[in-house]
Specification:
Blueprint: E1 4-10, E2 31-32, E3 35-37, E4 46-50, H1 69-86, E5 95-98, H2 108-118, E6 124-127, E7 134-135, H3 148-153, E8 161-168, H4 174-188, E9 194-198, E10 220-226, H5 238-245, E11 249-253, H6 257-261, E12 268-269, H7 275-285, H8 289-309, H9 311-320
Parallel strand pairs: 1-3, 1-4, 4-5, 5-6, 6-7, 8-9, 8-10, 10-11, 11-12
Antiparallel strand pairs: 2-3
Length: 323
């Protein structure tokens, strides 16, 4: 059976490279099993809408001197045609919509609107929340520049430092602000860890932004993996995958999805984002003992991420239903 071509469009800024996901397979040009990931293919067999938000939106009926209903309807029809062109003529049942946003209180209504707007164009619509037509875990992507073969075959890299945290200074929601508050607490109490990321407040003394997350994780025994959202059974993000693929033992704050997807002992549960959590991190990171105890479980988890949770593997299984 010939490989099916999967195209991709996204509303993520900068996510427009032709080789998208190619680092997540050992084969050339995005091949994985029965599929080939070609984000820019003009006539793909399947189309992935990956965190895509730019759906046509009809204007509500208005009354007024400057409102022209006919003109607005024409605009709406032009936007539909433009999106159909982006979809490359792929039949609706072969168009996949995957939302990657957590259902934070501040954005959940917006996420629901995206699900509704996707319905005329997409045969499969999923997201990591109970509001989605098909609630499901987010298939794994990761943000290390290493090749798949390197990640798959490598032994643990030299571990020379205790703990790191790669995060951002985003503060637009209550959950973001709670995370920043926890960061301030850790630093005010003198916890030994290295902080990396973009947009972080200067008073947190960050080490700077990373082009490749590997360098802020691989040399460390432990990594703080703190999700933006921890309150349902679906949401788990690359924060956990990146940490484990770098052979860190994640100290994880998130929902129950991770427990269902990964082998026991491959990560540690941070109890809370407060003094109790601080005390837990202090105790764990005082020695590398917990990392050595978890080493075999980390190795198993890495194989699960690379081969089973991989977004390419998920797409391959989806395509099988059409063979």
């Amino acid at each position: 059976m010939s490989q099916k071509i999967v195209g991709m469009i996204s509303s993520y800024q900068g996510l427009n490279q032709s080789d998208w996901l190619w680092q997540q397979t050992p084969h050339p040009f995005g091949a994985w099993g029965n599929i080939q990931m070609q984000a820019k293919a003009s006539k793909p067999d399947f189309m992935l809408l990956y965190n895509f938000h730019d759906f046509p939106s009809p204007s509500p009926k208005k009354a007024g001197l400057f409102f022209n209903q006919k003109r607005e309807q024409s605009r709406y029809e032009e936007e539909i045609q433009a999106l159909q062109t982006k979809l490359g003529g792929v039949a609706k049942e072969r168009v996949i919509f995957l939302l990657r946003e957590p259902p934070l209180d501040e954005v959940v209504e917006t996420n629901i609107k995206f699900y509704k707007k996707a319905q005329p164009f997409c045969g499969y619509i999923s997201g990591p929340d109970d509001y989605a037509p098909t609630p499901n875990y987010m298939p794994a992507i990761w943000y290390h520049a290493n090749s798949f073969r390197e990640l798959n075959e490598m032994e643990p890299p030299p571990k020379v430092k205790r703990c790191s945290w790669v995060t951002s200074g985003i503060s637009r929601t209550a959950n973001h602000r709670q995370r920043l508050g926890f960061l301030q607490l850790l630093q005010s109490q003198g916890l030994e860890f290295d902080l990396y990321g973009r947009g972080l407040p200067e008073n947190t003394h960050p080490c700077g932004e990373l082009k490749n997350k590997w360098y802020g994780m691989a040399p460390y025994y432990y990594n703080l993996a703190i999700e933006n959202y921890a309150d349902n059974d679906w949401y788990v993000s690359e924060k956990l995958w990146d940490s484990l693929l770098a052979w860190c033992l994640p100290i994880y704050h998130g929902g129950s999805a991770a427990d269902k997807l990964l082998p026991p002992g491959s990560f540690l549960r941070l109890p809370s984002l407060d003094e109790k959590g601080l005390a837990y991190i202090q105790e764990v990171t005082a020695t590398p003992d917990a990392w050595y105890e978890a080493k075999d479980a980390i190795a198993e988890a890495r194989q699960v991420i690379l081969h089973k949770l991989n977004l390419l593997e998920w797409l391959s299984e989806f395509v099988k239903d059409f063979s």
